[in-house]
Design brief:
46% helix; 17% strand; 355 residues
Length: 355
């Protein structure tokens, strides 16, 4: 849920810092709450801030050409609550205040991009231009990449600052007049939402609460467009599969039917029914398999264009290709067998007269 202190009794920089800390303590003490934390912008909520930074010891880049990262501010407990693993170093903690050295946590993407093959712990960056008197922040931890604006998009570099230290650096900013409270529950999160609201208002009834939702709902909103696209694509693909099956059946059965005269001649010359059926099925399946091979080659190439809207499945998913190939080859087999069986059961003299 988003908790806003704008226009409340705790809207001042010092008051809101105390309020956020007290609010989290109240929520953590609730029955059914495993952990709780705060962040300025929830991932997948559609709001990110890009922020330039400077790396200590690196040449100063030209204006507008330096690196930047997604800027996050957290209160201890956020990563644990969201289930974001710490890959190395430590999390931000309660001792990271304005009276201690500036620290921050980064994600794997940022670490791999600017310190490839190195341990970024202890490296220092600044969110202020060094030429104007930088405050250097030490990297104390690296966390796993998490989803950001788009579910299927590649994650960008992120920096996570302790709220109390960030508050010290940006006292005059109203950017943190609202924060997102996250809580991990032991049961149904939606049922605990009213109780969490009550705890927030117990600390200060003048604050505003909005956007109350579970993470399942957040993910559902973030994936709504690609899910609709895939549903639409799936519907068209199903129609295409049916049309392909109908087309294969019609063409193959017509081709076999046209050979009724040939079948009559073969049987009149002594060919057995089983031999004729095997011949027709072998020829029909050879064509079907050649077509399936060509289709699979085209599908593998074109499916890579869909990589951006796929999640949990690769463009070269073997199961999908196997099912579609088996279905179409099965249709080809049936479309050849049924008319061949009918033709071989008839009198050879009648077959010879069919044309």
């Amino acid at each position: 849920m988003t908790v806003s202190v704008a226009g409340s009794k705790v809207s001042g920089p010092n008051q809101r810092a105390e309020f956020y800390q007290e609010m989290v303590r109240h929520v953590r003490a609730m029955p059914g709450i495993q952990s709780a934390g705060l962040i300025n912008h929830l991932p997948l909520a559609g709001d990110t801030w890009g922020w330039p930074f400077w790396i200590e010891g690196e040449p100063l880049p030209a204006p507008g050409e330096g690196p930047d990262a997604i800027y996050r501010v957290v209160i201890p407990g956020y990563f644990q609550t969201m289930g974001i693993p710490l890959m190395s170093g430590r999390d931000v903690n309660e001792t990271d205040t304005k009276n201690s050295g500036g620290v921050l946590v980064i994600n794997e993407r940022l670490a791999d991009r600017y310190w490839p093959g190195q341990d970024p712990i202890g490296k220092r960056i600044s969110l202020e231009n060094p030429q104007k008197g930088a405050s250097w922040l030490s990297i104390v931890g690296v966390v796993r990449n998490s989803k950001q604006e788009e579910w299927a998009a590649r994650p960008e570099g992120e920096v996570f600052l302790p709220y109390l230290q960030n508050h010290y650096y940006m006292e005059s900013s109203n950017a943190f007049s609202y924060m997102t409270l996250v809580a991990r529950t032991t049961g149904d999160a939606a049922q605990l939402a009213p109780s969490i609201e009550s705890q927030v208002w117990a600390v200060d009834p003048s604050v505003t609460i909005s956007e109350i939702q579970t993470m399942d709902q957040v993910v559902a909103k973030a994936t709504a467009e690609p899910r609709f696209n895939l549903l639409l694509l799936g519907a068209f693909a199903s129609i295409a599969l049916v049309l392909a099956a109908v087309g294969i059946y019609g063409v193959t059965s017509y081709s076999v039917h046209r050979r009724t005269h040939e079948i009559g001649i073969r049987m009149a010359l002594g060919a057995g029914r089983a031999d004729v059926r095997r011949l027709i099925l072998r020829q029909a399946m050879t064509l079907a398999l050649v077509g399936a091979g060509a289709g699979l080659g085209g599908a593998v190439g074109l499916a890579r264009l869909m990589r951006g809207i796929l999640y949990g499945v690769e463009p070269t998913d073997a199961g999908t290709y196997i099912v579609v190939t088996v279905v179409l080859c099965g249709v080809a087999l049936a479309s050849a067998y049924i008319p061949a069986r009918r033709a071989t059961r008839s009198d050879p003299i009648a077959a010879l007269r069919c044309e």
